[in-house]
Design goal:
Layout: H1 2-16, H2 20-46, H3 57-72, H4 77-108, H5 111-170
Helix pairs in contact: 1-2, 1-3, 1-4, 2-5, 3-4, 4-5
Length: about 170
């Protein structure tokens, strides 16, 4: 399932995150995901069903994309920004699935699944809002400050090179 696939990659994401707040949000998401997996397994037992396909191809694509970014981008605000986007894409996919599952469980009168999916929806939406706020308040400003510092360093280097050329030309 998407939740199991996300659970396998989440510890690597926590380690790759530069922002402590992002690490904490991912840690909380891991706890919520573990609880949701338990709820789903209990609901399947209650309904005397077994899980369908073990691999969710759509979630796998989103997670693999995120994993590639983690491998390609150096740790820091740029990676944190990309990770937030990737995590939110995956979370939005999960939110859609949880909403559908809740509606089906409600139609079938399976209250335990309704409650689990409602909790997952609330937590998923809260995580999405938390990640957006984190991106707006911490990650993007840090990324812009990093970019400004790089621009200033480049300008200093250009000025030094230009100054060195003009001293040589005057000799």
């Amino acid at each position: 399932s998407a939740e199991n696939q996300l659970a396998r990659v989440a510890p690597r994401l926590v380690k790759a995150a530069d922002s402590e707040q992002l690490q904490e949000a991912l840690g909380l998401r891991m706890e919520q995901g573990a609880r949701l997996i338990e709820d789903i397994e209990s609901a399947l037992e209650e309904m005397e069903q077994t899980p369908g396909r073990k691999k969710n191809v759509a979630a796998e694509g989103l997670i693999n994309d995120l994993r590639e970014h983690v491998q390609e981008i150096a740790s820091g605000p740029a990676l944190d920004a990309v990770m937030i986007g990737g995590i939110q894409k995956t979370e939005h996919y999960c939110i859609a699935a949880w909403g559908t599952s809740r509606a089906l469980a409600e139609a079938l009168g399976i209250e335990s699944v309704v409650k689990s999916m409602e909790r997952a929806l609330e937590e998923g939406k809260a995580l999405d809002q938390q990640l957006t706020a984190l991106a707006e308040q911490e990650i993007t400003p840090a990324l812009l400050a990093e970019e400004d510092a790089e621009d200033a360093t480049e300008e200093e280097e250009e000025a030094e090179q230009s100054s060195g050329r003009s001293r040589r030309a005057g000799s």
